[in-house]
Amino acid sequence: MNDTMFAREFAKELESELPATLKCLERIPPELFGWKPHEKSMELGYLALLCAEIPQWIIHIIRQPEIDFATYQHNTASKTQDLVDHFKNNVAGAKEALLNVKEGALAETFYLKANGQELLKSSKREQVEMCINHMVHHRGQLTVYMRLNDIAVPSIYGPSADDKSFMS
């Protein structure tokens, strides 16, 4: 599959993951942003922000040759709507970037770095492909955090115990 076909299909896949991620983010109360289940775990607010931010990585991967953790600018959120808006803006930007991919652009090398030190090197296509998996992984973590805080977990790929519309 060529780059433009891949990018169009990937944009569709990103769009298909949007409703479930949005339903999760809309339920995260700001008073729990600092909560974490274990001292080694991420805070709930950071995890939610990560889910909202990953589509932005797609934009960056397509348009830039690298992401360096030392200089990458993370957004901040002080309220739930900030998470929702950030996610919606990032998905829109990612879809726009994907739909404008030129043939051969995704074969270029992409680098993930920390303070200039190379951590990972692969094609931009491989990195874009990993973004949805990465977002879905963290969304799964987010649903566990939600459950531990008695926040209703939405239906994602099928009914959840909290989704009464699926209950008989």
From TrEMBL:
Keywords of the record: Metal-binding
Keyword NADP on entry: no
InterPro entries for this protein: DinB, DinB/YfiT-like
Stated name of the protein: DinB family protein
Protein origin, superkingdom: Bacteria
Protein family according to the UniProt entry: Belongs to the DinB family.
Keyword Metal-binding appears in the UniProt entry: yes
SUPFAM superfamilies linked: DinB/YfiT-like putative metalloenzymes (SSF109854)
